[in-house]
Fold:
Amino acid sequence: MKNDLCALSATELLALYRRKKVSPVEVTRATLERIGKLNPVLNAFCFLDPDASLKAAKQSEKRWLKGTPQGLLDGVPASIKDLIVTRGWPTLRGSKTTDPMGPWNDDAPAVARLREHGAVLLGKTTTPEFGWKGVTDGPLTGITRNPWNPKMTPGGSSGGGAAAVAAGMGPLTVGTDGGGSIRIPCGFTGLFGLKPSFGRVPAWPLSPMGTVAHLGPMTRTVDDAALMMNVLSLPDARDWHSLPHDTRDYRIGLDDGVKGLRIAYSADLGYAKVDPEVKKLVGNAVRTFTQLGAHVEAKDPGFEDCGPLFAAHWFPGAAYIVRNIHPRKRALMDKGLLDTARMGEKYTTAQYLDAIQKRGALGVLMNRFHQTYDLLVTPTLPLAAFAAGKEVSNLLKEKRWTDWAPFSYPFNLTQQPAASVPCGLTKKGLPVGLHIVGPRYADALVLRAARAFESTQPLRVPAL
Structure:
């Protein structure tokens, strides 16, 4: 990416606005021009509203000229995943079964907070149908591609947002994460992404996938994610699951480092198969924490493969989605989602309640684990990005996307904060992510550790 306005972080843009060196209108026009150039290749956006974006940018410009910015993100371009309702824009959730006519009268909490803080909303980013899988393609919007290599997937289900930010089509996006949908695409596209503690970022309407679903920031830098968290975590009465508002500024203490922290490193959680090149890059990254003064110990958290437990929560959620769609419309849907829903229908009430009990035991295990260790680090993913348009990387070894994402969904079950931070490139030039998991509610600690690691790394961006 050229050293232009589209290459700047939100934090850098705000500093330039403050000094009146750059205008939000200039930045928005440059961003829209870049979207016009790259979106036909990457398919990151499924809806754009250039007129509304420029109108918002002009209003922001007036405020900055008067020295009265509106909140923390005034004039910064941002995008919204197409699962998140947005006033005046269709939220189709990647599905042909959704009526584009709406009505679209409400902003979800995350969108409302961005508007209140002056962000320039660009449009909606692509997602697989109802966000059901870890890649981004579907009957409505087609295939979304990775800026590092358009033949490869950017992951999912927040793949459109990841492709947009990685390609310089706006520095900020809001993603959702029900089983890795922020961290998977950030791992595949070389971004930073945080799945906050469950309830830290208010959500409405509630996800049909239940209490595994989180919302969070996807950015190029940890600084920008901390800034976004100050906005996204503000309270909203519509989410009865949300945590009491934490008034902290996530930027304070961000550069305090990791000296003295106790970090457990698990290369495979005790059971996952990891590509050797990925394992080497992540192992090198972990040694950086030792150099930064942390006490690092190789230690698995001690739970078994969580795939069956996660499926008992995720697959019934898919069944719930499909049961509310008229049978005549189901022919329009992703066949993989329909297959997953049929599997979800087979779970009995007793099996579902048993899964809830086992989930509680897993949460207790991790609570106790973090009595000894401040953080757990693993690979974000066991492999680098694979071919776009496929749900799995290897049809002979994998049935569903969960088979190649073993590191992410356990921590949706436990509702812990977890982040992916880029830690290098494979020989083929594809990004690899380092996964940082903290105790519940220790979102600031996860950000701090990610910032410490990020400070040792060169900024890597795709050549576009």
